[in-house]
Amino acid sequence: MASDLHAAIFIAKQERHKNLFLNYRNLNNFPVELLRDEGMQFLERLFMKRNSLTTLPENLAQKLPNLIELYLHSNNIAIIPQAIGELVKLQSLDLSDNALQIICPEIGQLRSLRHLRLANNQLKFLPQELGDLRELETLDVSMNLLRTLPERLHQCLSLQCLTADRNLLHCLPRQLCLLPDLNELSMAANCLTSLPLDLGRSMELQFVFVDNNAQLKALPSYLYNKVIGCSGCGLAAQISDVKQLCLMLGDVTVPLPYEVKAIGSETDRVLPLEELACRVLHAAHNWTDVKFLTPFLLPKSLLDVVRWPLGHCHRCSQPMFTIVYPKLFPLRETALAGVHKRTTVSFVAYCCSSQCLRTFDLQG
């Protein structure tokens, strides 16, 4: 493995590659080969996903000064050095699925940054300096421990997509309504009790996700003509009268998903076998104990895929692994077309099968 790593870096240096892929290398430390001598002045994109890195070198910007994209998804990084702010050409930074508890203020010096992903960390707050990122278009801070968002976030005038699902947010800063280019706002599964009355006033804002906020009882009237999405209704699955099928694997009995009964039907849409297999394995594992081993022995790469679903069913909140992109319908295409003063807003979303198309009412 080490020889393969050295060879990959050596070839990249010799041939002056602009892209370097070091994913799935079981790296515990940043490769010193990238930092020796003059470094890799020509490198623009570095991929180091799914390793075991815990930190980044202080001289990263000196050795990789032309870096445009840096992907560090799924490592164990707990600290980002202050020198990260010296990567002045960086446009995309992915630090999702790490162990970050603090983001240093120097991140606000990345004035060329367009995409910042900090999902699934342990962040309790974000630095106000994020507001200095005037070119930022995408910000994903979902699955953290955030109770508030930075007040200066509205200064990110290029922001188009803000995702803050599964945090502890109680309110949304009213200043965010001033963002001129904001097109998608996702605040699902938080602790929201209300939304700013001006939310949705902007013509650019078209997609709003606020489901799974138990205390949220009403929506601003400006949202009534927007696309209001539901990315997981949180309702328990409806149990069918059809007897559930089971799969016998030695001494282990694994219940199959209820969708299996639809196989062979011309009217029902059947899920891919890959999706069904992932759901079964996900349900069979005991994820509360990472060291717990089930009868299913999987490579780490597959185990990670099964452990962390990409999304959940809009109807029953089942985990989804290969089909996670919702098809949303603007209210102008529904029975609420032209209605602005009603206290009921419909949520319409398309999930993993045609059977999951439903309408949910939020009473105001």
Strand content: 15-25%
Poorly predicted runs of 5 or more residues: 230-242, 259-268, 324-364
Would you report the number of β strands? 17
Task: Give me the secondary-structure category.
Answer: alpha/beta
| Sheet with most strands | 10 strands, parallel
* Proportion of residues in helical segments: 10-25%
Rg over CA atoms, rounded to whole Å, is 23 Å
Given the C-alpha coordinates, what overall shape results? globular
Spatial order of the strands in the main sheet? 1-2-3-4-5-6-7-8-9-10
The SSE string, one letter per element, is HEEHEEEEEEEEEEHHEEEEE
Structure report:
Pfam families: LRR_4, LRR_8. With 364 residues, the protein is an alpha/beta fold. The chain is 10% helix and 16% strand. A ten-stranded parallel β-sheet has the order 1-2-3-4-5-6-7-8-9-10. Strand 2, helix 2 and strand 3 form a beta-alpha-beta unit. The longest helix has 13 residues. The radius of gyration is 23 Å and the shape is globular. The C terminus is likely disordered.
